[in-house]
Amino acid sequence: MTLLRAIEQTFCSLKSPTQDELKQALQTIEHQLSAASDYKTEPTQFPYGRNVIYQTPELEVIVIHIPPASATAIHNHGTSVGAAYVAAGTIINSKFKLDAYGYPTLESDDVLQEGDYFIAPQGQIHQMTNPFHTSAVSLHVYSPPLSSVTRYLPYNEVLDYVI
Asked: Mutual orientation of helices 19-28 and 3-11 as an angle, nearest 10°?
């Protein structure tokens, strides 16, 4: 069975799944997940590749390809929850909280290696980084599909003007 067929069979009946249900669904097709690398795309608009490989009104499945020495923006997932699987390489998943002025400050870093699962609770602010010499590929499932993502700039990247 192909990865796309396994995803369709596993996720087509889920209605408003929780992050734990998304992770459990991924785990049921674990033997197919390494094939996510076959669906990676090269970066175009962002410093990483992003390929939506399956979508319903309830959820979407995305393959993320982070080339060496690249990262996503610091962001949240709006009203969505998610679960993901590292199909190739190693990713640093940095979690942030907002300071009193609304700027992200680093809370923790998790090193995620090939074969690891991780979750994205609603409201989590994070950044995925690949500081290594080989590409990293991960497969993400979000419910509902991503729509109101917010990106954050750290304070040191914001220009302050003194008047």
From this structure: 140
3-state secondary structure of 148: coil
The tokens for 8 are: 């369709």
Q: For the chain, what's the residue count?
A: 163
Cα 79 to Cα 76, 106, 142, 159: the distances in Å are: 9, 22, 10, 29
Measured between alpha carbons, how far is 47 from 34 in angstroms, rounded to an integer?
Answer: 22
Q: Are 111 and 94 in contact (CB under 8 A)?
A: no
Instruction: Write out pLDDT tens, residues 69-105.
Output: 999 999 999 999 999 999 999 999 999 999 999 999 9
